[in-house]
Specification:
Elements (H helix, E strand, L loop, with lengths): L2 H19 L4 H4 L18 E5 L2 E5 L8 E7 L7 E6 L3 E5 L7 E9 L2 E2 L6 E3 L14 E4 L3 E5 L8 E7 L7 E6 L3 E5 L7 E9 L2 E2 L6 E3 L4 H4 L8 E8 L2 E7 L6 E7 L7 E6 L3 E4 L8 E9 L2 E2 L6 E3 L8 E7 L4 E3 L3 E3 L1 E6 L6 E5 L3 E2 L4 E3 L5 E9 L6 E9 L27 E4 L15 E4 L6 H4 E3 L2 E2 L2 H12 L3 E5 L36 H14 L9 E3 L14 H18 L4 E3 L14 H9 L6 E4 L15 H14 L7 E5 L13 H18 L2 E7 L9 E2 L3 E2 L1 H13 L9 E3 L4 E7 L5 E7 L4 E4 L4 E5 L7 E2 L4 E4 L4 E5 L4
């Protein structure tokens, strides 16, 4: 044994003695990997605040890895926050608070490794307001696919919850909330008995239900000829500078004329039209007596006036304890838009406010437009009932970030100063992510629907998200240079207010078409999902979503069984979240299933519920349906566009662009049988007619690889309609044209003038009804068809035309 060995043993003993004195093991001293420690937990989510008398109850979801939570409070939005409690439970009640004062809360998670950052901020106002009594009675009047409800004012009530069941005695589902003593339930099924109750609400809580009333809607109730019956039961609720009117809806009325006079005998002057059995007349002088009457209207004429009622507006409408503006911490890009809402607490029945912005502009409905320069703006809401009560929020205005890039939601269809028609005018849905299915035709955007990316498929349980399919789609879309439009739809079973309701799309997950279970108590389930989608979109440029479509075909019961007002509430909540988190994103409004050439449907009631401005783009689907069958040609699409523009004008949103987010020739038993040539003509004519209006910025064809509107099949490749799409896109993308570029002669021949992207003047010509030969000007030298890419020389100035459009091109640039 060597001397070196003995020396090594001596040094090892010395080292071990030193390590022991310092509390170290040999493994730790030599740098061995220590036992893993827990990571710092994430802040909790799902926070819900419930105010009471001098107290606020707070609850939240479990944060993974957390062993306790810190509850923090502030009296100003954004802090500073003071820790008021530590708890090991997912809930805490903060007592000893001042009623009428707003409190702001954040929660952090704690474990042995440390404390998380703060959660998002939430606020509430405790109140000692009295709980109202229920309405003393309820009347239900049946109509054609609708039921009109009315009830007397309940004591201490500031609003009402309208509830419905198909079983006498319930259980009841909340349909809508209202500040009036009347409501019309539309979209119900004729021949089915419905049972209704109404509860009253205030800051103090919700009353018990009223007595039940029932009605069975019938088609015969409105199909009789003759003028409608005279409205009855007209009541008036005075407010500050306004009078709220409600009445019992006659069964055969389609709309109502609201009339006013300054003397009991008239004359009565029409001041408004309403499609509901209620209306608020504003702009009145407090202390002045007004007289009101209502007449019912249908296609056969107008009824006589109802019995008149007198009312005097007054500012004495109860007390206002506080105003709170939402969102409380808003942000916007320069010249961006943002919707604001204000909550008025107190016993007042007048919940209206006036709005003011220091730098930007804001409408009477709370629609805000940021200034053109970055900075800090202030938005203030002031109570109309008590102008001494107001609330202000600070708006952070920034220049739009370059990544992700701002989206061009209002891109023009054409340009007279360069640029031409955007590629995104031609956009698509395709349903298989396989590389072999990727479209080989020009298109600028992809609509994510029928792509396994619905709400129910992503959020499998509350707070548990499966992003796999969505990420694959988004990565694929961005890798090819397109933008993405995500379409909301299909409520998860666990979140549904009707979890036993059959889902037409997925029988195994019922309840997909019903509103969320907490819609009337904070709408937090929906808000959490929208927030999660937008935050995920912003986590990577590969996952960025440029456009959000706010519900697929809500006019169909397989997609939505709630009311237009309920969907309006959800969309308004989503609109605020999307624009707060991603000011560059654009919101497309809910898109009804058909462009009905006999009248735009669903949207009038939806807009009347207050959501017209909660969209950047107006959406619609292009299937032409008249109530019993689908059209065999697309000529009615221009009528639908005109009707939509008229509706947009009524609600002051004419400047918003129009997108058709889905469409094709129709399928199913009520659709016409079309040959491949007729389908190609349908596609080309519909795109051309939309293009000719100058109003439509995008049309998403449905679909590249599906059974409906098929442009391509795995076995056969491009179909004849697919070839037509490909060629037409090549003609139009980059082209420019003057206003009203198309004319139609007495034989039905359309001629549309344009300048191609190459700079050559051209015309696109077709006749939907016949095939024939026409003579063109001698300056046109070549022609092309939509069947292939061949360029043909024009002989004797003659060109054969028919239902499939033909392109003729001049010989030189002008």
């Amino acid at each position: 044994m060597s001397l070196q060995f003995h020396m090594n043993r001596v040094w090892l003993c010395v080292l071990m003695a030193l390590w022991s004195a310092q509390g170290l093991t040999a493994a730790a001293a030599w740098g061995a990997t220590p036992e893993p420690t827990a990571s710092v937990p994430a802040p909790p989510g799902g926070i819900i605040l419930t105010p009471g008398n001098g107290k606020i109850a707070i609850s939240w979801k479990v944060a993974s890895g957390a062993t306790s939570y810190h509850v923090k409070r502030a009296t100003a939005s954004g802090g500073p926050y003071t820790q008021i409690a530590t708890t090991t439970f997912e809930g805490y009640t903060n007592v000893g608070l001042s009623n009428g004062k707003r409190y702001y809360y954040v929660i952090s998670s704690v474990n042995s490794s440390g404390q998380s950052g703060n959660s998002g901020q939430f606020s509430a106002i405790p109140s000692n307001a009295a709980v109202p009594g229920p309405p003393s009675s309820l009347a239900a009047i049946a109509g054609n696919a609708k039921v009109g409800l009315s009830w007397p004012t309940a004591s201490h009530a500031t609003g009402y919850h309208i509830k419905r069941s198909t079983t006498s005695g319930g259980p009841y589902t909340t349909l809508a909330t209202s500040t009036f003593t009347g409501y019309t339930d539309v979209g119900v099924k004729n021949g089915t008995a419905y049972y209704y109750v109404v509860s009253a609400t205030s800051a103090g809580g919700e009353s018990s239900n009223s007595r039940q009333a029932s009605a069975k809607p019938e088609a015969s109730a409105t199909t009789s000829t003759g003028k409608p019956s005279i409205p009855s039961g007209l009541t008036a609720s005075p407010g500050n500078g306004q009078i709220g009117l409600t009445w019992v809806a006659p069964s055969n009325a389609k709309s109502y004329e609201v009339k006013r006079a300054t003397s009991s005998g008239g004359p009565f002057v029409q001041v408004a039209t309403s499609t509901f059995a209620g209306y608020t007349v504003t702009g009145l002088t407090n202390g002045t007596t007004y007289y009101f009457a209502v007449a019912a209207v249908n296609s056969s004429g107008t009824s006589a006036n109802s019995a008149a009622i007198a009312a005097k507006p007054t500012s004495s409408t109860g007390t206002v304890t506080s105003i709170s503006v939402s969102p409380s911490a808003p942000s916007s890009v320069t010249s961006g838009t943002l919707p604001f809402t204000a909550s008025v607490a107190g016993t007042t029945t007048n919940k209206t406010v006036t709005w003011k912005a220091v730098l930007g502009t804001i409408s009477s409905s709370g629609s805000y437009k940021a200034p053109q320069k970055a900075g800090t703006d202030t938005v203030t809401a002031t109570s109309v009932a008590d102008p001494s009560k107001s609330d202000s929020v600070t708006v952070k205005v920034t220049t739009a970030a370059s990544n992700p890039p701002p989206t061009s939601g209002s891109e023009p269809v054409t340009s007279t100063s360069g640029g031409g028609l955007a590629k995104a005018f031609f956009s698509l849905t395709y349903t298989d992510i396989a590389a072999s299915h990727y479209p080989t035709v020009p298109f600028g955007s992809v609509r994510l629907w029928d792509t396994n990316t619905t709400w129910a498929q992503i959020e499998t349980s509350r707070g548990s998200y499966n992003w796999t399919d969505l990420d694959v789609w988004l990565t694929n879309i961005h890798s090819h240079g397109q933008d993405a439009m995500y379409t909301f739809g299909r409520v998860p079973h666990w979140a549904s207010s009707e979890p036993s309701q059959v889902c037409a799309y997925a029988v195994s997950t019922p309840g997909c078409a019903a509103p969320t279970s907490d819609l009337t108590s904070g709408d937090n389930i929906w808000k959490e999902f929208v927030t999660a989608v937008v935050q995920h979109s912003l986590s990577s440029s590969e996952f960025h979503i440029a456009y959000y479509e706010m519900w697929n075909e809500p006019d169909l019961s397989r997609n939505w069984t709630g009311t237009p007002a309920q969907l309006a509430q959800m969309v308004k909540d989503a609109y605020t979240i999307i624009h707060t988190l991603d000011p560059s994103a654009k919101v497309v409004g809910p898109t009804p299933s058909t462009a009905n050439q006999y009248g735009v449907h669903f949207l009038p009631d939806y807009y009347a519920a207050g959501a017209a401005n909660s969209q950047d783009i107006v959406g619609l689907h292009a299937y032409l349906y008249n109530g019993s069958s689908f059209a065999s040609n697309p000529s009615g699409i221009t009528t639908s566009i005109s009707q939509l523009q008229k509706l947009m004008s009524t609600y002051g949103i004419s400047s918003k662009p129009i997108w058709f987010t889905e469409g094709s020739w129709a399928g199913g038993s009520s659709a016409p049988s079309l040959s491949n040539a007729q389908k190609a003509a349908y596609l080309a004519q519909e795109y051309m007619l939309m293009w000719s209006t100058g109003a439509v910025s995008r049309y998403y064809w449905y679909a590249w690889d599906a059974d409906l509107g098929t442009l391509w099949t795995p076995s056969g490749g491009m179909t004849q309609p697919g070839v037509a799409y490909d060629q037409l896109a090549g003609w139009l993308i980059g082209s420019t044209h003057a206003s009203n570029p198309c004319t139609e002669d007495s034989t039905g021949t359309y001629t549309c003038s344009l300048t191609l992207s190459s700079g050559y003047p051209a015309e696109i010509i077709w006749n939907a009804n016949s095939s024939k030969t026409i003579t063109v000007d001698a300056s046109f030298l070549t022609s092309r068809t939509l069947t292939n890419s061949t360029v043909n020389t024009i002989s004797n100035h003659e060109v054969a035309i028919g239902p499939l459009p033909v392109l003729v091109v001049k010989g030189q640039v002008e």
